[in-house]
Structure formats: structure tokens, C-alpha cells
Amino acid sequence: MIINDDVSDSEFLDPSLAERKNLAFLVYILQGFGFLTGGLTWIAAMMVNYIKRDSVRGTWLETHFRWQLNTFWYGLLWWIVGLISWLLLLGWLVWGILTLWAIYRVVKGALLLNDNRSIIF
Length: 121
Known about the structure:
The chain is mainly alpha-helical and about 120 residues long. It has helices at about 10-15, 15-35, 40-50, 60-85, 90-115; strands spanning about 1-5, 120. The chain has one domain (about 1-120).
């Protein structure tokens, strides 16, 4: 992952972009609360993300929306692997690692968003 600091000042002054940045923060917040709600707010976060992702196409915020979607889908995949691995008594390990990975991605993404930095994959 490469962090891009090359975002023009005019993008930051655009009021509609500020609203979309707030939406990206909302998605990070919903993802964070997902750990307390059994994943329900993760679903709400993805609904917001999919509904609004066209509005951020071509902006630095698009990388955050993609980061959030990847966090959700890969997280869901590994959650299912963890569920299946309960048969081998490895479920706790898989889910523990998944939880740490998801927390890292939510926190890192929110911090970069706060600093007006994009994420380039």
C-alpha cells in the first residue's frame, strides 16, 4: 500500500467533497461499532458505501471507499473461514486474528482520512 500526499488544495475546499469525506468517516464509525453490535453496523456501513461510492469516483476519497469495501468483503470471507474452522477448534484463533486485522484497517483508514490522505493499492 502506498500513501498519496498529492491531493490538490482545491479538492479540500470543495464543500461537496467535505460532505463525502464525512460519509467516509461515518462508514469507519459504523465499522468500528460493528465489533459491539455483532456486525449489524458493518452491513449498514456497506449500504452507505455502495449507495454513495459513485459520488466519490475520481477523487482521493474513492481509495477510502475501496479500502472500506475490501475490509468488509475480506473480513466476511475470513469470518466464514473462522466459522468453518470451529470444527478443527481453530475458530477462536482465526476470529482473533481477523478482529485485530479489521481494527487495524478501520483505525488506519480513519487516521489517513482525517489527514486528508488517500490510500493507493
